[in-house]
Amino acid sequence: MTFLNAHAELLITLVKIALLLFIVLTVNAYLTWFERKVVARMQSRWGPHRVGPYGLLQPAADGLKFLFKEDPTPEGVDRVVYYLAPLLALALSLTSLAVIPFGPEPLRFFGHDIYLSITPPDLNIGLLVLFAITALSVYGVALAGWSSNSKYPLLGGLRSSAQMVSYELALTLSVVGVLLMANSFNLKDIIVAQAQHPERGIFGWNIWPQIIGFLCFFTAAVAETNRVPFDLPEAESELVAGFHTEYASFKFAMFFIAEYTSMITVSCLCTILFFGGWLSPFPASWTFTHYLPSVILIPFGLWVIWSGIRYETIFGRVILPGLGTVIALLGLALAVFPGVNSFIQAPFWFLAKVFVFLFVYVWMRGTLPRFRYDQLMSFGWKLLLPVSIANVVVTSFVILLRSGWK
Amino acid sequence: MTPQLVIFFVLAALAVAGAISLIFQRHPIHSALSLIVVMVALAGLYLLMGAEFVAAVQIIVYGGAIMVLFVFVIMLLNAGAEERTSFSKLAGFAGVPLGMALTAFLAAAVARPAGAAQAPGNAAVLAPTRTISEMIFKDFVYPFELTSFLILVAIMGAIVLAARKGE
Q1: How far, rounded to the nearest angstrom, does the alpha carbon of residue B38 sit from its chain's CA centroid?
Q2: Do the Cβ atoms of A175 and A146 come closer than 8 Å?
Q3: Choice among A3-7, A23-27, A132-136, B90-94 with the minimum mean pLDDT
Q4: What confidence category does residue B38 fall into, taking pLDDT thresholds of 50, 70 and 90?
Q5: A297 to chain B nearest CA, in Å?
Q6: Which of A282, A391, B21, B42 has its CA 20 to 30 A from that of A374?
């Protein structure tokens, strides 16, 4: 026990890392399922529906497929860099999640305060760490393209590094407005600064004064994550599969996981910087909104049970009602225990907002066509960058005027 | 050995190994990657001294933006592995003594009991973002603006050169 007490901080951090990795990788897997389902709905198709009820086991099947596929190394590749690139992409995108705070209140556990983030909550450079990791993450894609010794991946790698350099300026400048308003790089302080007027609820968030900054930030962030409409590095209609053409099996899966993880990170960042992080959109005095998680979870659980007992396969008729019962009981537990209920509010709102942004990502993929390369460049340099600089200037003038030209 | 010291030696070894590898690699991309390792290791050392902001900016500016441009240009020119040539005579006669002299100077400067250099504990107090910004935009505002003017001139020069080539 003395060993446990002496190294409690370290052990708690290790457990938190393992837990976060498990959750994020699972969410990644189901994000692919969600994306395929939603895009299928938009195109009047069914999407995955054979493996498991409603295709829910499709991610597991995909994962197994990636693990057991042959993993050939093409001839003439630069071996070290070829193996390094997917590792770099995955490691950096997973690292960026370490600084995200998911809730304000620490969990009391055997006398230790466990905060809902891996780094300590007083990390003063949280946002800068995220930008540093974003700045490095281009190497995964660029080096994969270069080391493959093949012309399409090389073009993809070139495109990605040019795109990253062009959009990183706009990405960084677009959040300066938020930083000026919060007066801190600390992600927790940025959220707390949006709760200065608890009675305003949703109208106290940064999105209203910083709507231009948000639009610039989200556009640049989508470009940084190489997603539609900025997915020129992979552009399957022009470059076969772009930078990961020569990658197979689990090395390909690593790029895939890296991309989805950075989608989650960007969604978390949008939530924190512009949408009040874990803050509830309702005024603080409306305590009855604390039952909202239960109000959503219980009917959803009941609906899953109802649709499950009529499902066509026997497996589905067993699994779905079981899943529905778990969800409904969870919702009931949240309503019954007041301590759990008040603790869950912050993570609930945080995750709900992140989910909305993930849906927007999928929505854009189902809707928007890809940019042409020259359009991408002129959009980044001639529109996004000047607008975000203007946003910085206007924000600083307004802040200066309000503080009375000190 | 405190954990800080262990981390310092790991990072320092990483930086030195990266620098040596930068010189001895035959392919430009491998050299560029080694330089990135050096930059990141240096950022780690800054972080160890409590200079959080400088560490993050080191990675964003040097490790990210500048080295991405290096890698981009190397990829764009599709530079191949370089031939290894014999040691040049100038390097043998002048370079080796100069290198040794420089090392001796640095060693002497480090070994001298530090007056100006801060102990690592104090740096944490000295390097918050506010202090740095006050230094740049108040105390040293004219040198800072002059530097940005210099960079502007360099950018315009690059544009003029590029435009002339197109004619």
Answers
A1: 8
A2: no
A3: A3-7
A4: very high
A5: 41
A6: A391
